[in-house]
Amino acid sequence: MALSNSKREVEESNNNNLGTAGEPNRNTNSPSISFSPVNLKKVPHLTDYLQLENLKIYTNPLDQNRFFHPSHGFYFSPSDVILRQIVYDLSSACEAFSDSDPRVHVAYHRAGPRKQIFFEPKNTRAAIVTCGGLCPGLNTVIRELVVGLWELYGVRQIFGIQAGYRGFYSTTRNPLVLNPKMVRGWHKLGGTVLETSRGGFDLHQIVDAIQTNAFNQVYIIGGDGTMRGAVEIFDEIQRRKLNVGVVGIPKTVDNDVGIIDRSFGFQTAVEMAQQAINAAHVEAESAVNGIGLVKLMGRSTGHIALHATLSSRDVDCCLIPEMEFYLEGKGGLFEFLDNRLKENGHAVLVVAEGAGQNMIPRTAAQTEERDESGNLVFLDVGSWLKTELKKWWARDHPGELFTVKYIDPTYMIRAVPANATDNLYCTLLAHSAIHGVMAGYTGFVSGPINGNYAYIPLEDVAQATNAVNTKDHKWAWVRTVTNQPDFVKS
Ligand SMILES: Nc1ncnc2c1ncn2[C@@H]1O[C@H](COP(=O)(O)OP(=O)(O)OP(=O)(O)O)[C@@H](O)[C@H]1O
Ligand SMILES: O=P(O)(O)OC[C@H]1O[C@](O)(CO)[C@@H](O)[C@@H]1O
Ligand SMILES: [Mg+2]
């Protein structure tokens, strides 16, 4: 049933101005902050650029859903927020607060169902697309979007865009009609049934296709590049004043998306990496002066390598893109491995694919090489390291036995179905996205912040990166586990 558009009601629901929750604590006896301003990261809403009179508002059908019993507190309001930061140093004095002041609480809208929705289920046409590289859990997210839209909201027109962004305007691949029966077992499958691709981002053709197909909800699943594309799509949709909700669902096996706790599939990848590290360990241990070398994914961030190292405990040295390293001389990798081989007879080395790229010789053509999306194509740091290790040993220990076993499980760690934790995560992510779009939010990303699901402006996520901080406790923890050098030349 469509409700009347009460201006006050919507204004209230859009009142994000939690603003200054109070003055900073100026009690000089106590350095602690009793309360501080909240900087709410407002997520765009259809009512920001569309006339309220032209929009209809409906009661959430969950009210009538026989599996739900919406009770007090079931629906969230715009004043339910998630704080970005939960760890504070209260010892600092607090004279003034600015937006960038770390003591200001950055907050996001809490994800979840809203009492009022902006799409009539029978007139909702949802499109789902997957872009970029594979990641465990892609099929689970698609499945849950389909099932969630169908079962929670009664949406019956759901379409899968095939093979990434280019699928929107492809003349050979029509949108796939999706329903719960069709996607039933998809969460048990690796990859993406919808297929994915890099490149092919043509803004105008994509938005034209959204209009031609009368899609009014677009669910975009992908990594950093995909999110940047999604921002452009959202901007163009706003420019054309289309009543279309756009949501990004961040996917990256590398865990390089900022703001959110972690990306789905990451934990599965770390778990899969253990098999490679175990094999490398067995091979190294069973050889005389054996080195097990494992290359793991991580184009610009070393999160997989770092987490795999911490959870394995068999790793002697972890090399990541965020940390420069060197091979020769005092404090270098060779000296460290020499000592490890003397002490233990073997060593295990984990290297992220983006590490040491500046040290690998490359031709002019290789310097220029990019994939269809414009990402730099990396050289194989594992093969290069293996060659360098062998050269070093032959030079410094002629005639002594030595073995390097190089294991490259690159695609094995991402081309698998999500584990239980990631499957659960994907489900909550998909449902959060649906609730947000149904409630009229647009140009946003749904994701966990400090364990709670939140709505984050798409643009903020597209800009944020998540590098390993080699100055923080987690990296220090890696170094205490491995006792590896800091590779800082004295
Ligand atoms: N800056 C950008 N603006 C618009 N579209 C972009 C941009 N960067 C990438 N894209 C498009 O987004 C899609 C996916 O990009 P990309 O191949 O870089 O993967 P990704 O989303 O970063 O995922 P991942 O790197 O985790 O595999 C491609 O279709 C690409 O053309
Ligand atoms: O599928 P492709 O193009 O080989 O991509 C591989 C890249 O994708 C990722 O898995 C995600 O960006 C990177 O770790 C890796 O460099
Ligand atoms: Mg990327």
TrEMBL record:
The reaction(s) this protein catalyses: beta-D-fructose 6-phosphate + ATP = beta-D-fructose 1,6-bisphosphate + ADP + H(+)
GO BP: any one term: fructose 6-phosphate metabolic process
Binding of substrate, residues: 252-254, 297-299, 353, 411-414
Annotated ranges, domain Phosphofructokinase: 125-435
Biased composition, class Basic and acidic residues, residue ranges: 1-11
Site (Important for substrate specificity): 225
Biased composition annotated in UniProt, kind: Polar residues: 13-33
Annotated Mg(2+) binding sites: 224
The keyword RNA-binding is annotated on this UniProt entry: no
Region (Disordered): 1-33
EC number: 2.7.1.11
InterPro entries: ATP_PFK (IPR022953), PFKA (IPR050929), Phosphofructokinase_dom (IPR000023), PKF_sf (IPR035966), PyroP-dep_PFK_TP0108 (IPR012004)
A GO cellular component annotation in the UniProt record: cytosol
Positions annotated as active site in the UniProt record: 254
PANTHER family noted in UniProt: ATP-DEPENDENT 6-PHOSPHOFRUCTOKINASE 1 (PTHR45770)
Protein name in UniProt: ATP-dependent 6-phosphofructokinase
Gene: PFK
